[in-house]
Design a protein that fits this description.
Layout: H1 9-27, E1 33-48, H2 53-56, E2 59-66, E3 69-81, E4 84-94, H3 96-105, H4 108-114, E5 124-140, E6 143-155, E7 166-173, H5 176-195, H6 205-212, H7 219-228, H8 231-256
Length: 257
Amino acid sequence: SIRGKGTSEVEVNETIRIVKGIVKAAFNLAEFDISQEMEETINDEYFDTDDLAVYRVHAVLRVRRSRGRTEVTVKKLKDIEQGLFSRQEKSEEISEETYSELIRTGFRDVVMTSFPEDQDKIFSLVLRVNNERRSFSLNRRGEQYALALDLFTYRSPHKEDISEVQSEVEIEALNPLAKSKLGDIRRNLVVIVKDKGYNYSTDSKYERGIKHIGLDKPSWQRWFLEKWNSQKGLAWIGIVIGVLGCVVSIIAILLSR
């Protein structure tokens, strides 16, 4: 987490400067030709079952809106090692009419193709992510990489609360030569991040979001946390505790007679 709600753009820019410094050290960026390709706003919706079948196999079912396009994506984890993710990914651009049909049918066609073992379950919206992305292209003697710095927030579709702003750096090797070098870059990143007191992630953005809003917890625990984190819930819990206190007092008086 890099800043709370309502803090200034100055703090955001300082965080960007720090993250760029870490990446620069890991890549030895002095050797690279760097160009900033774009800044864009990305709105993601993640879909899953009530028992989080997609989450539990480290997969993703996502609808993304960016640059006037709507795209549905399925990602399945192939391998992970110290923050380096290898995924099988399939994306398709869709119209808003197709999106509405997917919602109506619970993503039936996508589920039957990508998650056939869960085709009898209901898929619904479980997480929203609003992301401000800064993208760069890196080139060095034939190596080609795409680097993205994301500043994003999590939001449950069932609550108005928005998380603190989170940060994430994604590095993608775009050709075979870059892929052969990515292991060394990853190791440099892990060492530098640890030395600066940070940590690399072993979870995807979706997995961290599910944990952040507490959907990975048992239903009774989610219910309690939702009550605890709202003013109405706290008032309700206070009333229940008060009533229980009165009942205990009455029982104690009766037993003492």
